[in-house]
Amino acid sequence: MDSDQLLVLYGQMAVIRRTEKAAYDMFMAGLVKGTTHLASGQEAVAVGASAALHPDDYVFATYRGHHHAMARGATPEECLAELMSRATGLCKAKGGSMHLTKAVSGMLGSYAIVGSHLPMAAGAAWSAKLRGTDQVAVAFFGDGATNIGAFHEALNLAAVWKLPVLFVCENNLYMEYTPISAVTPVPNPAADRAGAYGIPAEVIDGNDVVVVYEAVSKAAERARAGEGPTIVEAQTYRHYGHSRADPAKYRPAEEVERWMKHDPLDIARARLEALGVDQEAIAGADAEAKRIVDEAVDAAKNAPAPDLAEAFTDVWADGGAAWRT
Amino acid sequence: MADLTYREAVAEGIAREMRRDPTVVCLGEDIGPAEGVFKTTVGLFNEFGPERIWDTPISEQAIVGAAMGAAMTGLRPVAEIMFSDFLACCWDYLANEIPKVRYMTGGQVTVPLVVRPANGGGLGFGAQHSQAVENWAFTVPGLKIVAPSTPADVIGLMAAAIRSDDPVVFFEHKGLFASSGPRPPEGHVVELGQAAVVREGSDVTVVALASTVPMALAAADQLSTEDISVEVVDLRCLIPLDMRTVLASLERTSKLVVVEENPYQGGWGATVVSIVADEGFQLLDAPIKRVAGANVPLPFADDLEKQVIPTVDKLTDAVRALAAY
User: How far is the C-alpha of A233 from the C-alpha of A253, rounded, in Å?
Assistant: First the structure.
């Protein structure tokens, strides 16, 4: 990856990091209701993978999905407006933090039932195969999803039908509040299961955007060549707790410190410096990210609330909600 | 033209749509060369081949989840769930994913798919293969629900269901598979949400669905010898629910019996009668009666099963009780 491309990816990660911080601040200020599952610390998985995909590929993500929505073209303003229940939100304020979706750019949803979207991604890949396109589908999921039935059913179907689908596990070491190692009999919860389905797997540093880009590029190439699914297990770490109710006190201080020093933005910055990119250009990307997110916060705060009639739209394809005569 | 059976109508209805629309594909257990455990996909694999008729593993979540992903990306999948009891194995998709994704994305995606379970009892399959579970789907806003009673309606409603841009659960009744009726002409479509008055009468309206339609017609025949004139309404669909036809019938008869195979507790008849109580109370000259499945698991022995599911005798008793008013 050349320095120009890496600088773009760095900028995207910086925007996501600042958007997540803004989401946190607005939650604490009472401007975001419900809950949020922030992806700070996991930006490299979304950004590196998206850089490896084609614009018409499909992405399915989880309730911790702000980074995936933004990596696939959702703007910080659309995302923050959604979190703040504004009419201009990505899903018209009907989805919320856990369901960010940008279908026009192939980001087909964030699903909040753990593991549910892996079969969907297999289905989208099946569809691409039947329609004769070279599209691939990617399911991003957490380590916790590897112990639910839908994960195993999806892997089996994808393997036996040789579907162009990538299963990208964001292993952030905790299924909600419990260490994944305490509830899983193998050290790599996704990759170590791959052999049972004859699927190739790779465990990578999910905080290095270049490593993610390369692994996903290789997996996508396999898929496009008709060689079937791949599992990529990206080791990463979340900077915040599981959700807004969680201060994450169950994580050892030493572990947190180690991972904070292994930050995706720091790693990308070091790579940029090694490629000879000057400090000014990196600072410029940071300043641009700050400008984008500051403007997004203002715009979202000033956006109107949804029209109340919207509660009764979008149930059916005709746009309405009529269920009887 | 020769008659055809209800089971032949299922395959014929699917085949007609597959001939006119190349995006229609089928998936399910044993639906390919084996032609379905209920022989409802006879001829499909032969005519359309393995590119459009896909045998799956026993993986209900993968089947319905993949159908969802395919429906979101340009196909019109028709997914068979062998016994409707097995919907419980993939209920996440019917309860949380398929009916909600359009709404929670603010209308960004559509899921034009059909899920076809074989439903209902009376065949001695015991508690886990005999249930009438149309009321399960009826609890979930966002699903259209079809349950035909004749071969012609199977074909006409299958056309409408497959062409629908909304998700449809298409309940085929196991007890009706061997029944036969006229073969409808090519191009026969029955719009979703249009009930049929299948027998006109003046004393009591019987609202029925699927297996209880022939039961109601048999009861009406029997009661006509007692000078009781029964009007039979075949709802055909639960969603959209054609209450206009029910209320119009009550304007003629002023008395209502609902006959439903699903359990009395939470059965769809409860919603029908609550609407009548709310909006048609002034039309009534007698209390409303519901003949429904008993609130017990379904027993194996024929004589025991008859105790707990609707029968002609139970229905005639209910109608007689109302006719006396």
Answer: 24
Share of chain A above pLDDT 70, in %: 100
Nearest to A122 among B69, B92, B107 (CB): B69
Give one word for B49, left, alpha or beta, with left for phi > 0 and alpha for psi -120 to 50.
left
Phi first, then psi: what are they for A221, rounded to 5°?
-65, -45
CA distance A258 to chain B (A): 38
Q: Give the pLDDT confidence of A167-203 residue by residue, as tens digits.
A: 999 999 999 999 999 999 999 999 999 999 999 999 9
d(CA B309, CA B311) in angstroms, rounded, equals: 6
Interface size between A and B, measured as CB pairs under 8 A: 165
On whether the CB atoms of residues B167 and B77 are closer than 8 A, the answer is no
Q: Clarify whether B60 is annotated catalytic.
A: yes
User: Which one-letter DSSP state was computed for residue A38?
Assistant: -
Vertex A113: Cα angle to A109 and A119 (nearest 5): 65
Nearest to B51 among A91, A130, A324 (CB): A130
Q: So where are chain A's domains?
A: 3-312
**pTM for this one?**
0.97
Chain A touched by B69 (CB under 8 Å): yes
| Contact check, Cβ <8 Å, B66/A109 | no
- For A3-312, CATH number out of 3.40.640.10, 3.40.50.970, 3.40.50.720, 3.40.718.10 equals 3.40.50.970
- Tokens 């109302």 belong to residue: B322
